[in-house]
Design a protein that fits this description.
411 residues, rod-shaped, 13 strands
């Protein structure tokens, strides 16, 4: 669509917008009734055209909404230029307009027209009225009434435009919502199912492995499967939290937490048999939490330590309870994390490592921080030449259900 067609479409929409204002027919009726004039209109006036948007015609002038007059034959063209009302009680007795061609052409003796502005100050057109007979319209009360009505029309046009924009945005949001649901379905089904098949195949191969070379390949496959499953989980959580309605955490203290932590450590130890993981997990007692989410949190932290930590130093997983507070930490040796990086570490899609073999989506630590926050806890990181430590603290007792916070929620 070229610029000319775009301009024409916009003009038609502006004319139609006035026609959709329920107040305009009432305004035109009140104008005619209060002044005694037989014709009133709202006109869109540009630098090239005069178009009737709404009309009340009791004198048979023959104009209807959508009709046009030659711009140069109208007084509204002059108003567009000087931006002031024009008010005439009796054309024949008016020193300025007694010889003006417009009254003679359209056969009127009384006339009033005031400019209509949008709220940003843009000139839209005019609210005008005329009649073949003289009328007393050049009064402060009449001019004030016309000006107030013109201001109301301008404000309502802007309000209507905002409503249309909101409805359009809502329609777009509904379409986006459908796309989000499809996106989450693809991740949750179309990617998980083939990944589960690969995982089952790798486990079968492990049982039948006859030499170290085969076992090494199977271990690498299982590690990749675990990493891909973790990526899918993280993207699903991000999609639900940022693009959807957030995630509910199902917290209770009905089952012990220690077996869940040991299971996570065992799974990652199986995928990384060459690495040493030191486990220091006390008896924790009844901990109110969402155990699968805490397992996900530990899996992300431990996987991060295995990926980025020093390969010749052990990784330590520590869990203990101090009063009504649960402490969970993962430590690893290796290159310290720069202070500037620590500040951004829990932002989504931020990746601290540039090594190709260590790159991911940058969602793991973000999800970890959100799980901690949803449990009413905190996640901290300290890193120096000796050790890097991620430490979680959460209340061990709670009577409130947990919810993963979405962006904009109070922390």
């Amino acid at each position: 669509m070229d610029r000319l067609e775009t301009g024409e479409l916009r003009l038609r929409n502006e004319v139609a917008a006035v026609g959709r204002l329920d107040s305009v027919p009432t305004i035109l009726n009140m104008v005619c009734r209060s002044t005694g004039m037989g014709f009133a209109a709202v006109a869109r006036v540009t630098d090239a055209r005069w178009i009737a948007c709404a009309v009340r015609d009791a004198i048979g002038l023959g104009l209807a909404a959508g009709d046009e007059l030659k711009l140069e034959t109208t007084i509204c063209d002059e108003i567009r230029g000087h931006r002031r009302p024009v008010v005439i009680d009796h054309v024949a007795a008016d020193p300025v307009y007694c010889g003006h061609p417009t009254p003679l052409m359209y056969g009127f003796q009384s006339y009033i027209s005031v400019p209509i502005y949008r709220t940003d100050g843009e000139f839209f057109g005019t609210l005008c009225a005329l009649d073949p007979q003289p009328a007393k319209v050049d009064t402060p009360a009449t001019i004030s009434m016309f000006t107030s009505f013109a201001d109301l029309i301008g404000a309502q046009l802007d309000a209507q435009e905002r409503v249309v924009a909101s409805e359009s945005a809502l329609a777009d949001e509904r379409e986006n919502s459908e796309l989000r649901e499809q996106f989450i379905a693809v991740l949750g089904h179309d990617l998980r199912n083939p990944l589960a098949s690969i995982d089952a195949g790798a486990k079968l191969l492990r049982r039948r492995a006859a030499d170290d070379r085969t076992l090494s390949i199977v271990t690498s496959m299982e590690r990749s499967v675990g990493r891909m499953a973790n990526l899918i989980d993280n993207v699903l959580d991000f999609a639900r939290g940022r693009l959807g309605g957030g995630l509910m955490l199902n917290g209770d203290d009905l089952e012990p937490l220690e077996p869940v932590l040991h299971q996570v450590i065992g799974e990652l130890q199986s995928a990384w048999p060459e690495r040493r993981i030191v486990t220091l997990i006390d008896e924790l007692g009844a901990v109110y939490c969402d155990r699968p989410r805490i397992a996900q949190l530990l899996s992300n932290l431990l996987g991060n330590a295995l990926t980025h930590g020093s390969s010749d130093s052990p990784i330590t997983v520590e869990a203990y309870r101090a009063g009504d507070v649960l402490h969970l930490a993962v430590e690893n040796a290796g290159t310290p994390i720069p202070a500037a990086t620590v500040e951004r570490l829990f932002q989504p899609f931020f990746r601290a490592s540039a090594a190709p073999a260590q790159q991911g989506l940058g969602l793991g630590l973000y999800i970890v921080s959100e799980i901690a926050r949803a449990h009413g806890g905190t996640l901290s990181v300290t890193s120096d030449d000796r050790v890097t430590r991620f430490a979680l603290t959460i209340p061990a007792i709670s009577a409130e259900p947990c919810r993963l916070l979405s962006p904009g929620d109070p922390a």
